[in-house]
Amino acid sequence: MSTSVKTARPQTAQKPAPQFSDRVKAERRLGWLLAGPAFVVMLAVTAYPILQAVFDSLFNYRLTAPDEREFIGLGNYATILTDEVWWRDLGVTLLITVVTVVVELILGFALALVMHKALKSVRGLLRTAILVPYGIITVVSAFAWFYAFDINSGFINNWFDWVPGIDPDLNWFAQGGTSLFVIMASEIWKTTPFISLLLLAGLAQVPDELTEAAEVDGATWWERMSRVILPNMKAAIMVAVLFRALDAFRIFDNVFIMTNGAFGTEVLSLLAYRTSISRLEIGLGSAVSVLLFICVLLICFIAIKLFKVDLAGARGGK
Amino acid sequence: MPRAERPQSTGRNRPRALAGVTLALGAMLLTGCAPEEGPPTLTWYINPDDGGQEAIAQKCTEASNGAYRIETSLLPNEAASQREQLARRLAAGDSSLDIMSLDPPFIPELAEPGFLAPVPEDVAQRTTANVVDGALAGARWKDQLVTVPFWANTQLLWYRKSVAEAAGLDMSKPVTWDQLIKAAESQDKYLGVQGQRGESMTVWINALVESGGGQIIENPEAPGDEIQLGLTSDAGIKAAEIISTIGKDGLGSPGLPTQDENNSMILFQGDKGSFMVNWPFVWPATNAAVESGSLDKSLIDDIGWALYPEVNAGEEARPPLGGINLGVGADSEHPDLAYQAIECIVSPENQAEYFVTNGNPPSNTEAYKDPAIKEKFPMADTIRESLEQSAPRPQTPYYNEVTTSLQQRWTPPSTVDPQSTPQTTADFITSVLRGENLL
């Protein structure tokens, strides 16, 4: 989440600043005063560790061999970028990101429509029901999905043995494809509510007059959707995609619990974790983390510059 | 420290905020900074068990007559996570690490940089008399005793008497892996082995390589970039053959690639169970399941045990070695008291009691004389014999790299190729240790 906060900041700061009235100036000052302490804390807890990681990444440094620490410049980066493990993990991470975000967007939009159209009397209940998975801690949901599919304790093989390819002897976590399927399904189940909530906010922004006018003009449902509703909620959609893509790219819990990266399911966060925490290779691990951070920055950059995501526009202002 | 930040105030209500800060500071002073009263407290970082270590801690606190007080602090479940936490704390110079329950394979990594306080000569002599060889080997690094053996674990071959009989195997004599494979094939049963990508896979590989007369690492004390691997020896190739056959022929059940010790026990208890290599915990666990009614009583009578299977007929097997050793952190404020406490903890009486209550076998042969042990664990003599023959996993400061590489390259078992896997694993470990590859 820290990254999303960070991207939001330059947007407000970069706005062109011609002449302001006194009131606007006072408001701005108040804004800084209110946000200032949080800003300082953010710098202390994010900027400092990031700089430390960049510094550490230039050393060959193993926590259990502190005396052998040596400066190797960009050597760690060269090791990582020439290693197939890094590229394989990057591929897996991108695959998970793309598949989950696309599926979540479609499902989330459908759910948002349902919530939007639902009768007032059931709307609250419906929203709660849809939001429940999002309220569950990821580690807990990962365990639930793991035990559901596990060959020893799971019930999925029994319930779905009529589906071709599923039989009682199918070990979901014994090969990459089926493992990734479960990981992604769990991820989608858990975070679709988040997207649907963001999209619901976007739907609410579309003025009723516009859709009503289109309906009077004889537009079909599809035409109203593609010509009126979707263009009007583009900002909300892009923000939802950006937030989810950033989150999905940093996926850790599901993979850690279900396969621990076995059989080609390792993602970049897990590689960073294993290198710095398990292997205690602080230098190499920091380099992996820095590269992961650069990847996240790249995603933000692409989204904001190329797709022109307007983060301020999603705040509800028209 | 975070305690001080908790009473948050909006700032509008100054007195309340001040009161909050004062309270928090007060609480901090009371808990952290107040001068200690009474005997010094020793913190013992324990691995999760059934409460046995906690009980011993209390017993030894009482026996010390006020010289020290032992407080336990729980480590994570997984041995690998225990190591991560301890290594980080030790590297950071944490002075609370008075006594630590350590998994033997990770001891060299902590001993090499001097993270462990040296064992006093007299303590070493008193605590190692009558300790089984395997456990003693696991407690040393570079010919020095760096930890004190507490309890020692080993795997036995557990078998269903009915299946062994039907297959015509004489279990009173040592059996070989090839015989077990044939028996499982002919009886259409599953073998209980641990094929998951985890530490248990390394335990299996190491036992096979050692039993075949080889070693995974030939010079475990060498620096990382000079380590010589023995995987391509005949013993390494034979080990790969056994694992690959069990994997490819489906003899370990479809669950093999994700099978740990607990899963293989459940498999063994089921209709298709035949032979299983596993730690002694399966005995109390199976008995408890029978008592609670979830398993049939006849199962207990059908279970037999023997020494770990041989790789080559006539060559004594080298069963896996596990267990816990006790170490003292180099930055502990009371190393003398800690070693005094350790002497109390590892006394044969405590080890025997720990075995009976928690099912973890003693490392001290004296403890096996306790009659309560024979009653609870009829296989105690086999366990002791197995411990005498057992071989530790490679003792190198780079154990984590070695075990992770083995796990990555030898799982799932069906993909192991005796012709190529030992060679590619050896090459991979070498390049990882030279820092040329990610892991």
From TrEMBL, chain A:
Stored Gene3D superfamilies: MetI-like
Chief place where the protein resides: membrane
Membrane topology (UniProt): Multi-pass membrane protein
Domain of life per record: Bacteria
Biased composition, class Polar residues, residue ranges: 1-14
PROSITE patterns: ABC_TM1 (PS50928)
Transmembrane segments: 30-51, 90-113, 125-148, 255-273, 285-307
ABC transmembrane type-1 domain location: 90-303
Alphabetical list of CDD domains matching this protein: TM_PBP2 (cd06261)
Keywords: Cell membrane, Membrane, Transmembrane, Transmembrane helix, Transport
Keyword field contains Transmembrane helix: yes
Pfam family, one: BPD_transp_1
Residue segments, region Disordered: 1-20
Compartments reported by the entry: Cell membrane
Family the entry assigns: Belongs to the binding-protein-dependent transport system permease family.
Protein name: Sugar ABC transporter permease
Organism of derivation: Arthrobacter mangrovi
Organism taxonomic ancestry: Bacteria, Bacillati, Actinomycetota, Actinomycetes, Micrococcales
